[in-house]
Amino acid sequence: MQVEITITQDYVQYNVSGKLDSISAPEFEENVISRMEEHSADTIFHLEGLNYISSSGLRIFLQAAKIARMNSTRVILSAVQPQVREIFDLAGFTQFFTFADDLDTAISILKGNTEQ
Amino acid sequence: MKRPENIAYWVDDVPPPWISLLQGLQHISVYAISLVFPVLIVSTINAPKEQAMFLVSVSMIAGGVGVMLQAIKRGPMGSGFLIPQICGPSFIPSSLLAVQVGGVPLMLGMTVFAGSLEMVFSRFLKKMRALFPPEVTGTIVTMVGISVVGLATKNFVGLGGSDTVIEPSELLVSIVTLGTMVAINVWTKGKLKMFSVLVGMVVGYLLAIFIGVIRPEDLAQVREASMAWFPFIHHPGWAFRGDMILPFGIAMICSSLKSIGDMITAQKINDRSWKRPDMENISGGILADGAGCLTAGVLGGMGQSTSSANLGLTIATGVTSRRIALWMGGLLIAAGFFPKVSALFAVMPRPLMGSVLIFALSFMVVAGFQIITSRMMDARKTFVVGFAIIFGLSADLAPQIYQNVPHWIHPVVASSLSLSAVLAVLLNLLFRIGISDRETFSMAVGDSSDAVFQQMERLGKQWGARPEIIYRAAAALDELKELIATQAKPAESIEIIARFDEFNLDVAASFSGSIPKSVSGEGAISLDQIPEADELAFRMLKRYPDRLEMGHKGKLATVKLHFDH
Prior knowledge:
The complex is a heterodimer of chains A (116) and B (565). By secondary structure, chain A is an alpha/beta fold. Chain A has four helices and five strands; from the N terminus they run E-E-H-E-H-E-H-E-H. Chain A has one domain: STAS domain (Transcription Regulator spoIIAA), CATH 3.30.750. In chain A, helix 1 links the parallel strand 2 and strand 3. In chain A, 38% of the residues are buried. By secondary structure, chain B is an alpha+beta fold. Chain B is 59% helix and 8% strand. Chain B contains 22 helices and seven strands. In chain B, strands 3-4-5-7-6 form a five-stranded antiparallel sheet, with helices on one face. In chain B, strands 1-2 form a two-stranded antiparallel sheet. The interface between A and B is medium-sized, with 23 and 25 residues.
């Protein structure tokens, strides 16, 4: 698994690729959760390159959604591959996240909200 | 069956009569291309003109019976799809041989034999699933399109027979005809799109008459043709010969393989959730295919088989309603008694034939690719597909290789389609040697998910499994691994036995220890109380397979995962 972090004025973007499983989850958790707890910002997980996520990975996303709810920020999952989207559906977690077809859509969803 | 997107009239839909009528005509305009085959065959023995007309008329009548038999689903007869029959190209070499040895009667007699044999063959098909995995049938479907490249492109530029000059006027007709068909198909919607080929044909015919590609003497031929006749009084009778059994038997095998490919394509284009060939359905389809061939032999037509070009047309237009078969069949049978109608099709200019073939068979090439790649590929399957296509094409591209083969093999090497089809079936059998449907391996609990996925993907490729099922099995094993890793004293490794057949994937895992009773893996999830890691892992482990059983065997815990394939 690889993670790249981009920080802009409006949001924090994580580009995640490869497989997010029990081996890679601790590092991802360290990166994401501690940052979210310290800085309150909208978050985009750009998952175009992610081809598998195990329950350890799913758990981190649940935590991220929980923190976002407490901070009144938003979590958007962008460009999720069909088989990964199916895992979210299968787990029954779809309701906790906003899915965007691509990165541009994800950004415009966030912008739409800030304008309101 | 799930209704696919882009289907305007699905297999059991009933379109309004005017649409069915025009669809029937459109299919006949594609069908008519194959009428050159019987003409070609009798032209080699200088038979009287009546003989050619007789063969053409009766072939149309037999084609009409065939398309209707194929579309019904009564008892064992028919696949219930709209797959028109044509004068089968696979029967050209053996029919040529027969007319040279014993005239038209021998060809008819041996066609009766081939049709009967195909009907018998169809009764054994259900047990022969192993012969037709997707990589074999997909290769055949792909080759249906590729094998006509020579014929289609030559016709497209107006070459063929004694015509060796590419005339600009013919090119113009080709480009306008194909352009019209494609433009209507791509950039229009609704009713017009359903008739892209028919409109292209009408435009092509008009242009061809206007700029002289159809010459006045061709039109005179149409004018001179009699309005109505009763073809059967010209029936020359039947003859049989023992030494024709082999060539016609082989022709029938080649023809059936192609028909099987067509039927699988029909199943796939009519079902969005298509997974595998339905052998029961194919068996009924081949019975109808044979019955159509038998009808041709008895009444006096050339050997028949399903038409890939017509099937391509149904994909292009999104009209697969089997109701059309009734209209097309009725029209074809009627046309057999009205020579003026068949004469109109007989003067179809080459550019029109080329355009229709290129248009319709493009869809078959792509359908073939899709069938091949619906399963995971390994080196064995790559060789099955690759060798069958490469050596198959040699029949067209390097025919001198096969100059000295015994004459009974001619039907196989006469076209790249039959050679690839036979090779694909044989290579598949050969490469099955050494494949076990049961594999044992072990997995370390500390492994990454990559290791599990690689192991399962290797097996999936070997078995030709569907990638999405293999993915779910690998994910389930990964979750089992995660669940075990959360325990106080986790086992170090898991022993796994995986079993596969076309319908089932069963994965049995055993490890020392047990699955803790404290986790349930059930219930609603809320963000207020995010479940523990073991709870989530168990939740996913339960949800991936179609069935899960847990138990104990001595000190070992066992988890059995079943996936429907």
